[in-house]
Amino acid sequence: MSIINKPDYKIFANDAKTGELETFPDLLRGWGVTVDRTAGKPPMEWFNALGKRTDEWMMYLSQRGLSEWDAAIDYPQYAVVQYAGKFYTAKKQTNGQRPDQSQNEWMLFADAIGIAKSIADALNAVTDNANTRLEKSKNGADIPNKPKFVDNLGLTGTVDLAKNAVPKSAITQHSGNSADHVMSQNTVTNFLNGKFDKSGGQIKTDDKFLSLQNQTTGAANYIEATDSVGNVRYRLGCMHSNSELKIENIAGKTILSIRDSAIYVNGNKVATEPAMEARYASKFRWLHSREIELTKGRYPELLDGEVMTMVRGSVNDAYFEARNARLSFLQCLIDNQWVTAKNA
After folding, report:
1. Is the Cβ–Cβ distance between 281 and 332 less than 8 Å?
2. Per the UniProt entry, what are the Gene Ontology biological process annotations, in alphabetical order (predicted)?
């Protein structure tokens, strides 16, 4: 028989539309159920269900390699299953006995094929071989050619580096320009403390002054401030692996977050990008409303959005007295629609 090529792993009828797939009504009876249900004619929906069931079983076995142990299945002798991350083989026919709790019925697959014994034998052989060649009590004194031994271990370079190690006299306690001296750890620490004032200060720049880079892609990334005893006052940044940006006022118990094109306060959505765009006024205009005559000392009640845009009076009077007025509506262009303003 020829070798079968690897299938494409597509599940039959996996994308069936609504009404094209129906669970087979009686798997144990089989097609005989059609005599009672569909006048002996099996429908398409049942064929789809059986094809999908078969492909899903094949996918299950392809994914796991060995099927998982199940209490409802009878296992013959030498059956192989997996359970809790380990592989087991049946010593005899068994049913309902968990592999990890039934040593009379099951044994580890590695023990069944002798892997554990082979490893133990190999380790014992290595130990015996080492003991016959080197005696621990002599601490290497029985090595006939020590330089050659070091060379065979690939440690010649390490020995040479040790010969050229920095002497204590070359370790200085101050900074300088020497090419063959190094500063001590204490000197470096003091030098850095002098460069970076931990008690406060200013960083002056016209560009980016601080960059936080994660060691792991998608990890949290934020700045945290504490008081003198270590209590968190606030946090700023991404607190989790997602892209949500937060400003957390711990003491004030207030959290402002930005995610999914929206703004939230303490988890409550207060604004969204579409909502803000919908309420954004891009233009303003005056729309003539009416002209009225004024009674001395009295002004009319204005309608919503109505403002006084012009007043006429007599120029011959000793004082200017309003005679009539022009009123107009103030309108805003919001979401491509002119909307009349509302009075407060």
Report:
1. yes
2. carbohydrate metabolic process
